[in-house]
Design goal:
Shape: globular
Strand content: 35-45%
Distance between the termini: 18 Å
Order of helices and strands: EEEEEEE
CATH class: Mainly Beta
Structural class: mainly beta
Number of helices: 0
Helix content: under 10%
Radius of gyration: 12 Å
CATH topology: Thrombin, subunit H
Number of domains: 1
Strand order of the largest sheet: 4-5-6-7
């Protein structure tokens, strides 16, 4: 959760990442990547994709500036400080 936004993986929408206000309003898709293991840190969402070799990606909380973090097959990711 960042501010009054909750970030989540929507299973019925193909495991894409969405955000929604805590009052249930303003539901928005953050990325259309199939995702797992979402970590929201400051203004970044870190996640593992199901495609692209299960790599780790990050994207700004507004859905901009998507970047691949690694090229390794990854799972069960956690972000703590500056470590993944």
């Amino acid at each position: 959760m960042v501010g009054d936004w909750i970030y989540y993986r929507n299973e019925s929408a193909g495991f894409k990442i969405f955000k929604i206000k805590t009052d249930g309003s303003n539901r928005e898709m953050v990325t259309d990547d199939n995702s797992s293991f979402i970590n929201v840190v400051d203004d970044w969402v870190y996640y593992q994709t199901w495609g692209n070799g299960k790599n780790i990606f990050k994207i700004k909380i507004d859905g901009s500036n998507r970047k691949q973090v690694n090229k390794d097959s990854s799972s069960f990711i956690n972000v703590l400080g500056d470590l993944i």
